[in-house]
Amino acid sequence: MTGLGLMVALASCGDAGAGRYVGDYITQTDFDNLAGWGADVNALTREHAHSGRFATVVNTTREYSLTYRLPLREASVHALRAVEIDAWVFLPSSKASASLNVQVQPVSGVSGDALYNEELHLLDQVQEFGKWTPIHRVFVLPTRLPAEAELRIFLWRASSPEPVYLDDLRVKARE
Amino acid sequence: MSPAFSASALLMLFALVSCGDNAKPRPENLLTSNDYEELDGWAPDGSLPYLTKEKAHSGVYSARVNSTTEYGGGFTNSLGKLSNTRVTKLRVHGWVWLPSKDANATLVTQLTEPATNKTIFYDGLKLVAASGNKFNQWAEVDKTMVLPANATYATLLKLYLWRDQSAQPVYLDDLQVERAE
């Protein structure tokens, strides 16, 4: 049964040394329940969607996608060791050099020197273009982040000349 | 069943449970709905003042109005973006939690013209009566209304919970907006 235990561990998307997922999500959304409900509608699009009708987008007129932002103490009931992200992205071509960023800012609502900023370059994750592709990454956070620091999760266009889409974002809290 | 097969079947099961897609079927006449579970963190300032975990009909969140929050659970979008076909009748369905008969908040359905900001339709559903005088429990509210013929593709549909005269907090969850026949 050791093999089975190993498989169970694999199946729960585990990464050693980055905390444990005990069932709490920081956020999970297909962006459909956000359109019209207070989120910035200009960051949502119906051009492409992996599920439902809406996805969030970056393009030449929009540098950042719809952004998740909450103080760490509101984002998770326990101190976070890491955030584990599963999402689907749509890149039109190999020129679509956008990234998925996880950032921690010391002051809510202010973009200053980040306490943490990690970019997942989507071109490193995606081999096929013009279709929805799943991505997965565990972002290990620094220890002893202040509880009032703001966690942000967003797509950044970077230098992409083409639009890039994100849908079905699920962020697990690893404690 | 061989042990190898059962182990791989079990693995598949765990994979489905922990990493599966939770695709929700979407009825064709559903224009929008919300259980308020996905909103926290996605407003321009992050949190929305009306979101609360004090009570929930489903999940852990609901929308709340109280003495410091006049409006809550709100939604705005143009009719044309909500529906590919003309909406002549609208059904609003949700769950509310009222502490007493003094918690007479209102669920407002409103149509406004974006160019002039003129209201062309207003319906205020008084929740004490609409809930059937059910207090300290989740009560279903349901209303179908006929929309005016001058509503267009660009007309904005607004729905929100208004504290109105309520001295006590009122909660709303699982709001559904449908095109009715």
In words, what does this structure look like?
- The complex is a heterodimer of chains A (175) and B (181).
- Chain A has 175 residues and is mostly beta strands.
- Chain A has helices at 2-11, 72-75; strands at 21-29, 44-45, 55-58, 68-71, 82-90, 99-105, 116-121, 132-140, 150-156, 164-174.
- In chain A, the strands form two sheets. In chain A, strands 1, 2, 3, 5, 8 and 10 form a six-stranded antiparallel beta sheet that branches. Chain A has a four-stranded antiparallel beta sheet with strand order 4-9-6-7.
- The two termini of chain A are 27 Å apart.
- Chain B has 181 residues and is mainly beta.
- Chain B has one domain: Jelly Rolls, CATH 2.60.120.
- Chain B has three helices and ten strands, in the order αββββαβββαβββ.
- In chain B, strands 1, 2, 3, 5, 8 and 10 form a six-stranded antiparallel beta sheet that branches. Chain B has a four-stranded antiparallel beta sheet with strand order 4-9-6-7.
- The longest helix of chain B is centred in the N-terminal third of the chain and has 17 residues, at 3-19.
- The relative contact order of chain B is 0.25.
- Classes of the chains: A mainly beta (175), B mainly beta (181).
- The A-B interface holds A 3-4, 7-8, 10-13, 26-30, 33-41, 51-52, 66-71, 74-75, 86, 108-109, 150, 168 and B 7, 10-11, 14-15, 17-19, 21, 23-24, 26, 32-35, 37-48, 74-77, 81-82.
Properties at a glance:
heterodimer; A: 175 residues; mainly beta; Jelly Rolls; six-stranded antiparallel beta sheet; 2 helices; 39% strand; disordered N terminus; B: 181 residues; 3 helices; 10 strands; 40% strand
Ranges of chain B where pLDDT stays below 50 over 5 or more residues in a row are 1-23
Molecular shape of chain B: globular
Structural class of chain A: mainly beta
**Assembly context of the chains:** heterodimer
What's the mean pLDDT score of chain B?
A: 88
In total, the number of domains of chain B comes to 1
